[in-house]
Design a protein that fits this description.
Low-confidence stretches: 17-25
Order of helices and strands: HHEHHEHEHEHEHHEHEHEH
Number of helices: 12
Mean pLDDT: 85
Radius of gyration: 18 Å
Shape: globular
């Protein structure tokens, strides 16, 4: 029986989440994917601050390629509800296992860190917590309240899981303390869900975005998709249309990078030209703003992207 708090990574995590163990050694990264190491004094200082306050960032847990840039600029995407996920998504390097109990003091520490970092825009995400009756939605609310009690002018974007077992309950809870932007990543095309997002459902994720938008039409919604997992361009365009149909305002499109040889292999490296083409298509059908490029992630330059929709409210 799995013990609480034990992290599973690499092959130990994904062996039941993929059709087979894979290797990524044969595909060489193109020049446009090279990232400069930025382990500067500012980065080290921020990491120390986060550890001292027992806080996690998806930047570190998921080995984001932009961590140097974002940390150097004093920004981070905070990951609440612990650092152990109940899902086994085979594209992600966040650890899997049986999470520990929710930390009731985390919202306070998060809010104090946001103020100490002098942030004006905050992204708060979480691991999947299928073990909780509300999926962790109450904890999101506590974090939003704690931050706004410190500074009501701070913009808050929440990047939420799919709340698969409790969507109606979670949406009612989130309605009691609305974020400035609600983000939920669709991640990939429907055909690849079984292998990429085991335990998740494409139509359910669309329903989440649509249901929230129907309840709160003035709150911008956002979603992201990764390329290079085996999808076709036509499939990606269909996903963009689906997101537009459920009222999604903002989209991010980025290159999938395999965290290890045990995760799903990179099928191809998409060119900057194709990323631009997809962005142009999304804008042409009504998406208000698109961040599309090889190193784009769902929270990358989130403050800049949100200006397109927040300034018009």
């Amino acid at each position: 029986m799995n013990q609480y708090g034990i992290k599973k990574r690499g092959n130990e995590k994904v062996i039941r989440g993929t059709d087979k163990t894979v290797s990524v050694e044969g595909l060489k990264k193109p020049a446009w994917l090279k990232v400069k190491c930025m382990d500067t004094a500012e980065v080290i200082k921020l990491k120390v601050h986060l550890r001292n306050n027992k806080l996690h960032t998806v930047c570190e847990e998921a080995f984001c390629p932009n961590i140097g840039e974002c940390f150097s600029n004093g920004t981070a995407t905070f990951m609440i509800l612990g650092d152990i996920c109940t899902r086994r998504c085979s594209f992600c390097d966040v650890a899997h296992g049986r999470p520990l109990m929710t930390d009731p003091d985390e919202p306070r520490r998060l809010a104090e860190s946001v103020i100490a970092m002098n942030l004006k825009y905050v992204v708060v995400t979480s691991v999947d917590r299928d073990d909780l009756e509300d999926g962790g939605s109450k904890h999101f609310i506590r974090c939003i309240k704690a931050i706004r009690e410190k500074n009501s002018d701070i913009r808050i974007e929440i990047l939420i899981p799919d709340f698969k077992k409790c969507l109606s309950i979670a949406l009612d809870i989130l309605s009691t303390q609305l974020p400035d932007v609600l983000n939920h990543n669709i991640e990939t095309v429907p055909r690849l869900y079984r292998n990429v997002r085991p335990g998740s459902d494409y139509k359910h994720s669309l329903k989440l975005l649509e249901s929230f938008k129907m309840k709160h039409p003035l709150v911008p919604t956002k979603s992201g998709i990764m390329l290079g997992l085996g999808e076709t361009k036509d499939e990606v365009i269909e996903v963009i249309h689906d997101l537009n149909d459920v009222g999604c305002d903002l989209i991010t499109i980025g290159q999938y990078l395999s965290p290890s040889k045990h995760h799903i292999a990179v099928d191809r490296y998409v060119t900057p030209e194709e990323f631009k083409e997809l962005a142009d298509i999304a804008l042409s059908i009504g998406i208000k703003d698109v961040a599309s490029g090889p190193l784009v992630r769902s929270s990358y330059h989130a403050d800049q992207q949100s200006k397109q929709v927040l300034t018009t409210q």
